[in-house]
Amino acid sequence: MKETTQQTEKPKGLSNSLKYFFGVGDAGFNLMSNIETFYFMTFLTDLAAFSPAIAGLINSVFSIVDACLSWIYGGILNGTKAKKWGRYRSWLILVPWIVPFLYAFQFIRVSSNEMLSAVIIIAAAIASHVVWNIGYVANATLVSVVGKTPEDRATLASSRGTWNNIGSLLFSYLGLPLATLLAGFVGETNKFAAAAFCLGILMVLGYYAHFKMTDGYEEIETGNGPKAGAAKVSIPDMFKSLFANPQLMILMVADLAKWCVKFVTAAAAIYYFRDAMHNPGLMTPYLLAIGLAAIVGAFATRYLAKSLSNRTTAIISFVGMAVSLALIYVAYTSYVAVIALMTLAQFFYGVAYSISPALYADTVVYTTHKTGKNAAGWIMGLQNLPLKVGVFMRGTIVAACLAAVGWQKGIALEGAARQGMTVALGLVPAVLCAIGAVLLVFGYKLTREKIAECQAAIDANK
Questions:
Q1: CB within 8 A of 395, min separation 6: which ones?
Q2: Which of 194, 220, 305, 461 could form a disulfide with 6 if both were Cys (CB 3.0 to 4.6 A apart)?
Q3: Are 310 and 158 within 8 A, CB to CB?
Q4: What per-residue confidence (pLDDT) applies to 226?
Q5: Ranges of the chain whose pLDDT falls below 70
Q6: What gap in Å lies between CA 248 and CA 208, rounded to an integer?
Q7: To the nearest 10°, the Cα dihedral for 297, 298, 304, 310?
Q8: CB contact set of 389 (below 8 Å; sequence gap of 6+)
Q9: What pLDDT was estimated at residue 69?
Q10: Burial of 184 from C-beta contacts in 10 A (0-12 / 13-18 / 19+)
Q11: pLDDT at position 5, please?
Q12: 444-457: string of b/e by CB count within 10 Å (b at 16+)?
């Protein structure tokens, strides 16, 4: 069959919509997924009336399966035939619309039979995560596909990070009120299912906006000729792209520290304010302060990266998190100082979160130059691995710290135990960030100049 390769006139640079609105889909994704993050266990025990053992089993089974599958999604994007609207961009409209329907069933108990209902919820959770992760990885990969220079990739990553943190801040104040409002229409038992469905629709609309604003930025592969399948990558080539690039493996290990800052500090904060400072009401101004700081940090990333480079910006963000979090352990007696220091740490977290996709995208350029294979989807999808490990470490680190200080429910902490509550909140994440900074300084060598050389060689070979 005659080969057909559709060529579209590519824009010369990023449009204003990409510079400032690429990420609205991530805001919708964050709003949607936070229903699970904050209220899934509450639904299982309080609304669905599962026993604690069954509730724990449901959460464990689907979480383990989700973690085990986290590495395959990029492989699906790179290993299958490209679709009509591009190898990556097409997935933004092909699969997200399925998510709200599957996701809602994760919050519905359909039978009085406990085990049958548990199986249905687990199946819905796994299915919804498989579908949404394909769209999520395709969306993240567009940072590499659309951004043709390190500066463009940093701008896209910054915009995406800004909107992601906006979604988190909005959910803090809108998530539960929305579910409560919907309870008046669907009943108390189904309120989280309704909220999951509605917020899932926002994710679908946001990804559609990404689909429209990236029109013309990805080359369309059609027909059956050799060029049409040039971006298709075999499984051996995927693993070759990983092991041939030590920069990528170092980045993944360092990236784990960022996710520990997000998940461990979020889980540990209530124990500090409630049990060490005896004032749980401080959580409200605390959440507002760190939410705004992360947004500012994410938006500032584009300017920092332009002036410094992606690598240098990442190193500074890790050092900033390490210093700020370590000082929390020292200043634990003053909640004002703790909030101020965590606000500063979250500013640097916003920078680290936003620059991270740009660093992965730079490894795509380096790997493509070194191996001759563009495994962008596979490499960008590997961001999921440190994220899933970070979720696991959240429970392990916080539980260990609670046990170390002799924490008991309902009993306020005094003396040295109060400082012990900042081990998880500050000290452990600080140590991990310091290790991450060292890894980036001595192990991640993809400077702006190196990436420019690799990209020039790739362009010349084309």
A1: 267
A2: 220
A3: no
A4: 47
A5: 1-12, 222-234, 395, 409-416, 462
A6: 30
A7: 130
A8: 67, 256, 259
A9: 85
A10: exposed
A11: 43
A12: bebebebbeebbee
What is the pLDDT at residue 436?
Answer: 95
CA terminus-to-terminus distance, the chain? 23
What are the tens digits of pLDDT across the range 394-421?
767 877 887 887 777 666 666 667 787 8
Indicate the burial class of 94 (C-beta count within 10 angstroms; 0-12, 13-18, 19 or more): middle
What single letter denotes the amino acid at residue 137? Answer: V
Q: What are 393's two structure tokens?
A: 């470490």
Check: CB of residue 32 under 8 Å from CB of residue 203.
Answer: yes
Measured between alpha carbons, how far is residue 346 from residues 295, 343, 455 in Å?
Answer: 9, 5, 33
| Amino acid found at 119 | V
Put simply, whether the predicted model's pTM sits higher than 0.85 gets the answer no
Tokens representing 181 are 């409002």
Which residue type does 133 have?
A: N
Instruction: Quote the pLDDT of residue 110.
Output: 83
